[in-house]
Structures are given as structure tokens and as C-alpha cells.
Design brief:
alpha+beta; about 25% helix; Nuclear Transport Factor 2, Chain: A; seven-stranded antiparallel β-sheet
């Protein structure tokens, strides 16, 4: 039995690639891995330079990470020259390369506040020293930033004129015991 609707989808013969697709594949294959690495290095250096310019005015930047407000700025102590790059090849045509960049980082941040005005007035910064790992993917010939992860090795707070290790003591609250409700009291929800 032959269905006439099947003719809409065309034959199953493979299509010949268009001239633009063939040129794009040749162009992507002709670039050397060193060129990709050089472009990634210039991209990361530009991002680190712009982050360094933002560190000049640390007291004005209040950040919202719902539901809290805080102030933050960061410094790259070794500058943009201390990049550790790891490029990995993938078996994908859309993202043939992925890269991880490791950089030393010092992050200064205040405590979390529930109100923006409290965060704006807070000038007590904690210093976290560690490494940041930034992930990139090569898509359509350009590097795209996927995200970053900062892992603090030490956290210090400034007190008495020097940086001291930070020890967070969790506050304990004792909950008052409520008297148990009876089942008919729970049914009277309108009260």
C-alpha cells in the first residue's frame, strides 16, 4: 500500500553540502590549535583587565543574590600572565574544543544582609584566597564562557590591624515548644 503523504518528505538520498557549508568546514579545519589557544589567551587577559578596573572602586558595588545583599570585589595577584590553560578536544561538531583556565584570585566580600542599606553601610570585608577555574567552549569559531568556580583555600577577616583566620561560630537557637493542637482545633482554620 502506498501513501501519497510520504512524498512530501522527499527522497532519502543524501544532500550535497552547499558551498558555504563546505567553506566553513575547510576554514575551521585549516585553523591551527595554536591559533585557538592564542585567541583564548587574549580573551581571558581582556576579562582579567576589566575585572582589575572594577576592583578600583570596591565600596560602591552592592550585589543581590536572592534573598541576600553583599559587597564584593576581587583581585588577581599574579596578573594576567599567570594563566594555566587546559584545552580538551571533543567529538562534537558544534563544540569541538573546551578549555579550563585556572587563575589565582583574592576575593573580598562582606557578610550577607537581608536589606540593601545594611549591605551598603557594611565596610567589614573578609578575604578569601584561592583559585578560580573558568570554563570555555569553542562554538562556531568563537570562544564562549560557560561559567566559573572559585574555591577559597583560606578565609581571613581584618581585625586589630591585621588579617586573621576566620572562624564562623554558628548561632544556636532553641525553639520554644508549642503546645500540641488537637485535631478539632486544626479543623477550625478560620480562627
Amino acid at each position: 500500500m502506498f501513501l501519497s503523504g510520504c512524498a512530501i518528505f522527499g527522497s532519502r538520498a543524501p544532500k550535497a553540502p552547499s558551498a558555504s557549508e563546505a567553506a566553513g568546514e575547510i576554514e575551521a579545519e585549516s585553523e591551527e590549535p595554536d591559533e585557538f589557544e592564542a585567541r583564548l589567551r587574549t580573551l581571558v587577559r581582556g576579562e582579567l583587565r576589566s575585572a582589575g578596573r572594577q576592583a578600583d572602586r570596591p565600596s560602591t558595588r552592592v550585589i543581590l543574590k536572592k534573598p541576600h545583599f553583599y559587597k564584593e570585589y576581587f583581585v588577581y595577584p599574579n596578573g594576567e600572565d599567570d594563566l594555566r590553560l587546559e584545552i580538551t578536544e571533543r567529538e562534537s561538531r558544534t563544540t569541538p574544543l573546551s578549555a579550563e583556565v585556572s587563575v589565582d584570585k583574592v576575593r573580598f566580600a562582606t557578610r550577607l544582609h537581608s536589606k540593601k542599606d545594611d549591605a551598603r553601610l557594611d565596610e567589614t570585608f573578609m578575604r578569601g584566597t584561592g583559585k578560580e577555574t573558568i570554563s570555555y567552549e569553542l562554538r562556531n569559531g568563537t570562544w564562549r564562557r560557560l561559567g566559573s568556580l572559585f574555591v577559597a583555600e583560606t578565609t581571613e577577616v581584618f581585625s586589630d590591624g591585621e588579617w586573621r583566620p576566620f572562624r564562623d561560630t554558628p548561632s544556636r537557637r532553641v525553639m520554644e515548644e508549642e503546645e500540641p493542637t488537637r485535631w478539632w482545633q486544626r479543623l477550625m482554620f478560620w480562627r
